[in-house]
Write a structure and sequence with these properties.
mainly alpha; Four Helix Bundle (Hemerythrin (Met), subunit A); about 0% strand; about 75% helix
């Protein structure tokens, strides 16, 4: 029940924010990625028990969210402000940014299509997806 309520809250938040603008839209979407990854990471770290059905559902949700990641629409030229952590390299090295986004989409879609069957496989999957996120943040995000 908690997951249903959380899922509805995140969906409502993202749906409402999609009228706000690209900065707000991408921030809401990235937060939703973090929420999904948080669920998976808790199991991968052993903080929660492995449940194949829950892992499959979490990966399906993450895949739905990542599929909405459109770097062109969410990061139009000049979409920065004093609060955003979007680095200028997003626009100066845009082909790399788009390629990194595509890699994340591919890796998450593959994981959702073939969910890990055990804890070791989940740890490898979370590691791979986490690396995709980390690599992008390293290059295209300003640390504050």
């Amino acid at each position: 029940m908690k997951r249903l309520i959380l899922g509805l809250a995140v969906t409502s938040t993202f749906s409402a924010s999609s009228l706000a603008g690209p900065i707000e839209d991408r921030e809401a979407l990235m937060k939703s990625f973090g929420q999904s990854m948080g669920q998976l990471a808790a199991v991968a770290k052993g903080e929660k028990p492995f449940d194949a059905a829950e892992i499959q559902a979490a990966l399906a949700t993450l895949n739905e969210r990542v599929a909405k990641f459109d770097p062109v629409a969410l990061f139009p030229e000049g979409s920065t402000n004093e609060k955003t952590t979007a680095a200028p390299t997003i626009w100066t090295e845009n082909a790399g940014f788009v390629a990194d986004a595509d890699k994340l989409k591919t890796d998450v879609a593959a994981a959702a299509a073939n969910p890990p069957a055990d804890l070791a496989a989940l740890q490898a999957t979370v590691g791979k997806i986490g690396k995709d996120c980390g690599d992008c943040h390293q290059t295209y995000r300003i640390k504050k």
